Amino acid sequence: MELTRRDVIAALTAAGVSAGAGAMAIEMADFGGSSGESASNTVSPVTRQDGKDTAELTKAVIDLLDAVAAVIYPSSIENRHEFVARYTQARTANRPGYRQGIVDAAVELDAVARDWHDAPYAAVSSSTAETLLDNLGVDTADPVNNGTISEQIRFYLVDDLLYALYTTPTGGRLVGIENPVGHPGGIESYQRAGMTTDSNQHSNE
User: Fold this and answer.
1) In 3D, which of 43, 97, 71 has the Cα closest to residue 165?
2) CA-CA distance, 69 to 50, in Å (whole number)?
3) 132-145 pLDDT tens trace
4) Residue 2 backbone dihedrals phi, psi, to 5 degrees
5) Domain locations in the chain?
6) How does DSSP classify residue 121?
7) So what's the pLDDT on residue 98?
8) CA–CA distance, 55 with 57 (Å, rounded to integer)
């Protein structure tokens, strides 16, 4: 199933981002055409963005988010990387606190991957990426924005990406409904709890 512009708009609307927001309009331009695989040719380590309040997530963070999505999204999904990039950039455009939370969680996950596998998280195989999340206990962790590393990864990375997918028309069809907002559907361990993220996560600054 192919994720489209309509799916990005639906996910952002469900997350409370106005369809008319300037950041969203920029990120929606030239959507489409990429496969589910990452568009990146090289993978860089994720680094903190402290000191510069940048208005967008870096390529390294987007690559890591896409690698997480490769683990938790069904393999039948197409345009995954494009969807993840457009959604997360627009989602965090006017939420610097939430953006920093994503960056911090990404930095921690990437550091673990480099410690355990001598490679950035986005550079390891999908099976290794999944095992790494499992070994960190992310599949059973509660989503807590200021909790342990595993809880923050669950909150900012896993659950937000799952929420994005299953609030889209395409994601809704995967769980048998057309309007999946608030529905707990999904597959396997991560997806089972993916839609339990409460409204606090999606308004956190």
Assistant:
1) 71
2) 25
3) 999 999 999 999 99
4) -100, 125
5) 5-203
6) G
7) 93
8) 7
